[in-house]
């Protein structure tokens, strides 16, 4: 079965991102740091301004027009996110600040249900967001934390995972759906099947994955899924936790306060039904509405087009990056999203980043919040170029030629 | 290409082939500087005699700026009174906040000044100097 | 010592709030629900759009221009907030989603240092945000939670507080700095002196207070202080915890993830220095910058003018509200911020709210997230009108005449 | 003043002086509806005979809309077959989503329709009907 996918009109798309016409050090901005945070289309910026200009009040419980309309706009985004993730119910969508908070929520709340002797598995390529909360849980509650290795190519080691699950004491497998350093997609369905076969639940950190691929939490049979708005062309300050309803219902609340209660007396409080049980206090109302605009915008382009465009960029980069003498790409995953980490002989990644910036090219250099992976790779830092829907082949070429000039200058 | 205006050729050459790398014989003072954020690490050894720094050397793992800065430090402080060296360290750190502060420094320390436009990299240049202050913390009293 | 304070030019101020020219049910919007959330001036809306249009990237660790500039803009707000609160150091300012999260952070982190047999005191007029987290801590860790009564007038009962502190086992007194229902200011310095005399720490929930009065955490000798951006004419999704440095340094982190670590290995992580230890993951970057704009804006008006304007409104409302037959104002605090709760004979607050809305007047009706206070007052709900810097006497009059007409219709 | 278009005079009068408040004698069915958010509470009692609702009464604490709705419910369902009453309950709830659904209802139930513009208040009107469904849950089988 093959189908023709029209590539998106990247020129038209770029015109929707005001920041892409900015200059940096007098040069055109070539923004290859979208995996850290994506730029925002006018649709998102305007959605946020419009709320604050014409239709804003605190939500829930308000009996006046502004409050009712704002509540509707906020709650409508829950439905959008459910659709975006293929979740069976909008009530399984919980709004958090970011992916980090979503994972911490699970570590505190679901974590409090785990018992001494049970184990949580994370992979060797996790972002700190999906490692440190589990270390903190381990230190709080005495559960065991174990590390699933990765292969030479930088893929998850599924055989090792299967073996580790054999121990029979694993309560949760928490892994990234796409590495923010190596760029490889994880076969989520395979992880879920292995985990479920041994009675463990699975959490996927989808912070990178949702930007690059259509995700369907039912298709991959996930139990928990998290992502973060600012990487998906949406606002900062808003993230998402999806979880199966029965899990959410069994879990105690994370934070206490307004809106998450059913009734309160001095002696005792009872909790609101999900999802509200997990949303204490005034939420990021404007940012949630902005996230809704981002999802609408992404879906208007469509994941077929997004993935096709990305594949073209990834193939191109895989061809031209090795033209830089002394450059080594880290990892060679089966299925790469639009992220390349690399190092260069005799040039430190930080020097690369600064000198590229001098040429208008923004990349990231460092440990990418994945220090343990760096130690595993025997590196202190890498340079990372990451692609978005607004990235062009010409920008990849600009990166490559700037790297070649830096190399000539340095060596 | 605007590399030269930021990375003076001395930064490049001294980072590629440092002249004062290693450990001094009969060291009297030492200190280590670490930047966990970027993994830069400097180990500085000194031999002080009669209130003077007779010799300095460094072992540096890190970026070009950090290596070059450590190497130029080792050259600049050799033969200086401890008191002077500490003053140089203060001036060096200060010049990134206040351009004039750099004026009193030897020219080869001023080559780092363009980092003012790349604030996140300033600590790469200052790390060796902070290590120097620590190494001399007791001699200064 | 007396000085002449110029009242602010409210007409000019109103012109800066686009939403105030909106119509509701064909009527001019009379927005008297600012204690739930304030409207936003263009200065705030534009500051947020401008970041996203011209100067945005993820912060910290970024070595390129956009990241460095955005980091500077974000970190500059820490200094602004420190100035706003009179805090001795910008490093004592921690950004949270809202006041609720700030209090939960303290309840989790500082709370984990409390020992069985120690007690936390909260008042009978707390918002759920400053009650439920302590109930959850009590249920988790077995500390004692006790309620400081309020007087007939709706002020904190300082004598009772002094007596309760006599028990000698109180670790923390956590009280609101201004009631969101009764409107009364709490004499924070008096609470702090009493608490400190018996070795307890004090937390003030400043969510309402910072909007109405100049707050100086050193002058009131606070240990913890919280507020929330959206009530201070700022964005949603951003709040603040201030605490003394030595407390922050002794406290374990709340959430784990990127940016809050110093080093991470699979075995063990070490924490970044304060404030970063408490800010896990990508923060609400744009919202923090928006909060900075809100603080600049508020300070450009100045608290002398704000307080003078508010006093005029409060005096006016205290005069005209009783003109409504059957209306009873709840509480008569010593020092009232711009908040009035009231009930009417034979008309339920919800009916008032809906019928006022029909006339363009937005007020809040319900338990105002203070159910225990409602029980104490023997009510299920009140109506609440709250004032902001953009509120006019004419709007208070519009409320009063609408209430009189509703009364005529109903009775 | 635009009160009349929203609060029909019957809502006002029946909330001020409900005609079916209290408890029916020889009750066969009852249920309680609670809205913790606004504190509305309805206690509904029914006497059912041979698949008919012979009599209904309510004790309601709450807003005008909730009291009037409970009172008009008690009037409307008296004499109705249980099956019909349950259908009315469904139609009543539905009419706020879909205006046409209200068409089949008696006129005095349609007076609540303007609440469509005040969605947060709809549950005040539907609470008694939800209690009715609960009270009849077993009879319906
Ligand atoms: C006194 C008081 N405390 C806490 C809060 C909670 O603020 P937020 O919902 O922004 O966390 C509020 C506002 O709702 C309040 O009035
Ligand atoms: C794989 C992965 N997980 C988690 C995160 C954390 O996202 P946030 O900082 O928005 O919580 C990131 C991004 O930094 C990421 O790349």
Q: What would the principal axes of the Cα set say about the shape of chain A?
A: globular
- Order of strands in the sheet with most strands of chain B: 1-2-3
Percent of residues in helices of chain A: 25-40%
Q: Order of strands across the biggest sheet of chain A?
A: 4-10-9-8-7-5-6
* C-alpha-based Rg of chain A, rounded: 22 Å
The general outline of chain B is globular
What would CATH call the architecture of the largest domain in chain A?
3-Layer(aba) Sandwich
How many β-strand runs of chain A? 17
Separation of the first and last Cα atoms of chain A: 50 Å
**CATH-defined architecture of chain B:** Alpha-Beta Complex
Named CATH topology of the largest domain in chain A = Aspartate Aminotransferase, domain 2
Describe what this molecule looks like in 3D.
The complex is a heterotetramer, with two copies of chain A (411 residues) and two copies of chain B (141 residues). Chain A is of the alpha/beta class and 411 residues long. Chain A has two domains: 10-41 and 302-406, Aspartate Aminotransferase, domain 1; 46-299, 3-Layer(aba) Sandwich (Aspartate Aminotransferase, domain 2). Chain A has helices at residues 10-14, 42-54, 65-85, 99-109, 132-141, 158-165, 188-197, 209-212, 245-250, 285-301, 303-320, 349-358, 371-377, 393-410, and strands spanning 23-24, 27-28, 30-31, 93-96, 119-123, 144-148, 170-176, 201-205, 224-228, 239-243, 261-264, 269-271, 327-329, 339-344, 361-362, 364-366, 382-386. In chain A, helix 3 (65-85) packs across helix 10 (285-301). Chain B has five helices and three strands; from the N terminus they run H-E-E-E-H-H-H-H. In chain B, strands 1-2-3 form a three-stranded antiparallel sheet. The model of chain B has no long low-confidence stretch (mean pLDDT 90). Classes of the chains: A alpha/beta (411), B alpha+beta (141). One pyridoxal-5'-phosphate sits between chains A (98-100, 127, 129-130, 176, 180, 205, 207-208, 228, 369) and C (258, 281-282).
């Amino acid at each position: 079965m093959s189908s023709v996918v029209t590539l998106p009109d990247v020129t038209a798309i770029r015109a929707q991102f005001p920041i892409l016409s900015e200059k940096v050090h007098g040069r055109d901005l070539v923004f290859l740091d979208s995996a850290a945070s994506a730029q925002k289309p006018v649709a998102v910026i305007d959605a946020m301004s419009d709320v604050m200009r014409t239709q804003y009040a605190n939500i829930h419980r308000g009996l006046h027009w502004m409050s009712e309309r704002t509540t509707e706009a906020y709650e409508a985004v829950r439905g959008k996110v459910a659709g975006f993730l293929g979740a069976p119910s909008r009530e399984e969508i919980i709004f958090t600040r970011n992916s980090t908070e979503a994972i911490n929520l699970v570590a505190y709340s679901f974590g409090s249900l785990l018992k001494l002797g049970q184990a949580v598995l994370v992979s060797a390529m996790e972002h700190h967001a999906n490692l440190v909360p589990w270390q903190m849980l381990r230190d709080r509650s005495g559960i065991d934390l174990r590390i699933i290795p990765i292969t030479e190519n930088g893929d998850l080691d599924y055989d090792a995972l299967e073996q580790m699950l054999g121990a029979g004491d694993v309560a949760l497998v928490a892994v990234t759906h796409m590495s923010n350093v190596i760029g490889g997609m994880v076969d989520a369905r395979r992880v879920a099947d292995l985990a479920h076969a041994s009675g463990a639940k699975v959490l996927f950190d989808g912070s990178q994955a949702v930007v690059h691929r259509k995700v369907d939490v039912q298709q991959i049979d996930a139990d928990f899924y998290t992502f973060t708005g600012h990487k998906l062309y949406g606002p900062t300050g808003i993230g998402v936790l999806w979880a199966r309803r029965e899990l959410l219902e069994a879990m105690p609340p994370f934070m206490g306060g307004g809106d998450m209660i059913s009734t309160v007396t001095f002696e005792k409080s009872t909790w609101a039904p999900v999802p509200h049980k997990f949303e204490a206090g005034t939420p990021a109302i404007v940012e949630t509405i902005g996230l809704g605009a981002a999802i609408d915008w992404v879906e208007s382009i469509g994941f077929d087009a997004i993935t096709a465009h990305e594949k073209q960029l990834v193939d191109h980069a895989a061809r031209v990056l090795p033209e830089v003498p002394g450059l080594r790409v880290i990892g060679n995953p089966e299925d790469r999203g639009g992220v390349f980490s690399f190092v260069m002989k005799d040039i430190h990644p930080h020097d690369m980043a600064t000198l590229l910036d001098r040429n208008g090219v923004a990349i990231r250099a460092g440990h990418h919040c994945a220090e343990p992976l760096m130690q595993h790779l025997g590196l202190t830092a890498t340079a990372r170029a990451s692609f978005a829907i607004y990235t062009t082949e010409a920008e990849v070429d600009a990166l490559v030629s700037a790297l070649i000039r830096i190399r000539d200058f340095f060596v | 290409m605007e590399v030269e205006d930021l990375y003076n050729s001395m930064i490049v050459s001294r980072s590629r082939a440092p002249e004062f790398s290693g450990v001094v014989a009969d060291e009297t003072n030492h200190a280590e500087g670490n930047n966990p954020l970027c993994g830069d690490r400097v180990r500085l050894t000194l031999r002080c005699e009669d209130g003077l720094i007779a010799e300095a050397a460094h072992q540096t793992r890190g970026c070009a700026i950090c290596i070059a800065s450590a190497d130029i430090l080792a050259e600049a402080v050799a033969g200086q009174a401890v008191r002077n060296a500490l003053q140089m360290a203060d001036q060096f750190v200060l010049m990134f906040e206040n351009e004039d502060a750099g004026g009193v420094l030897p020219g080869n320390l001023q080559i780092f000044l363009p980092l003012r436009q790349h604030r996140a990299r300033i600590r790469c240049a200052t790390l060796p100097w902070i290590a120097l202050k620590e190494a001399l913390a007791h001699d200064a009293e």
